[in-house]
Amino acid sequence: MSVSDLPEFNAFLNLTSGVFVTLGIYFIKTNRQEAHKICMISAFSVSVLFLISYLVYHFQVGSIRFQGEGWLRTVYFSILLSHTILAVIIVPLILRTLYLAWRKRFDRHIRIAKWTFPLWLYVSVTGVVVYLMLYRLPLSP
């Protein structure tokens, strides 16, 4: 795998994290705690791998300029801004949510997980959208 493959790999990791988070919520709602635990640990692991890969890519390549114009540029930067802010906010939320589960403080875990889940899912999905808009969107010259 070369550095040029990392953006697509990162989008795949974001998508995978979002799938694990969604499955984890499904499993806890159907009272399957062990499957929930496995999915959430998997989502966390994939997210850590994403962060490492993302940093490796951007330390080597730098930032990539969005080529779209007009309303598309506004949409892109709106998504990117919300994604970036929430990506920073979600890290301590994820860590706290996992910590509370690990300590078996499930009443507090559930309260914070109600915030963590939708934000984590949003960050995962918008990460894929940002990738698609930045690297795959066909733009006219």
Give a structural overview.
By secondary structure, the chain is mainly α. The protein has four helices and no strands. Helix 1 packs antiparallel against helix 4 (106-136) and helix 3 (71-102) runs antiparallel to helix 4 (106-136). The longest helix has 32 residues, at 71-102. It starts with 5 loop residues before the first helix and ends in a 5-residue tail after the last helix.
Summarize the structure.
The chain is an all-alpha fold.
Q: Topology, please?
A:
Blueprint: H1 6-29, H2 33-61, H3 71-102, H4 106-136
Helix pairs in contact: 1-2, 1-4, 3-4
Largest sheet: none
Large-scale geometry: elongated
* CA distance, first residue to last residue: 29 Å
Domain tally: 1
Helical residues, percent: over 70%
As residue ranges, the low-confidence spans are none
Quickly count the helices.
4
Mean pLDDT: 94
Radius of gyration: 17 Å
Strand content: under 5%
Task: Give the SSE order as H and E letters.
Answer: HHHH
The tally of beta strands, per DSSP, is 0
What class, by secondary structure content? Answer: mainly alpha
Keywords:
141 residues, 4 helices
